[in-house]
Amino acid sequence: MRQKKRLTPSLPFLLNRIGCFYPRMTLEIKVHPHAAIMEMLAEGLVDLALTTHQPPGFTSFTLRTSPTLWYCAAEYVLAKGESIPLILLEEPSPFRQDIIAALETARVSWHLAHGASSLSGVKAAVKAGLGVTARPVEMMSPDLRVAGISEGLPALPDTRYVVSCNRGR
């Protein structure tokens, strides 16, 4: 069964920006996990890839940046001094690696509370109160709240929306 993808408010904006840079281009939109997108780019199956991480070996530019925030369910309370229960995408996920690196750099104890195969799975687990995750500000919704430094979570770098070009096409 195919899942319907909900486009975040930033995707139309980003597509518009791409259209401004490349006005004669016909866009065919494909939504895949990061690893699959990078494979398609490397194999020359796509001309451009829009990701949140710049792949090595490709001409890339940043379309925009967006604050990266910690999220939990609206009523969720993080226990002070205890291991942070993380909700993350399954491997491979550059975003997952960035979250773990930020926690380890800040020497914050964490454990994997839930691994999800899709972003909708991450959102469902967060909304259910299973733990916290970090995503761009566009993920915010009324049933979530932003957690932060006062709860023992480190500041996170902004998310970069990067367009990478396939030079061979």
Automatic annotation (TrEMBL):
Keywords: DNA-binding, Transcription, Transcription regulation. It comes from the Bacteria. The keyword Transcription regulation applies. It holds the Pfam family LysR_substrate. Gene3D superfamilies: Periplasmic binding protein-like II. InterPro entries: LTTR, LysR_subst-bd. It comes from Klebsiella pneumoniae. This is LysR family transcriptional regulator lrhA. SUPFAM superfamilies: Periplasmic binding protein-like II. One of its GO terms (molecular function) is DNA binding. Residues 11-168 form the LysR substrate-binding domain.
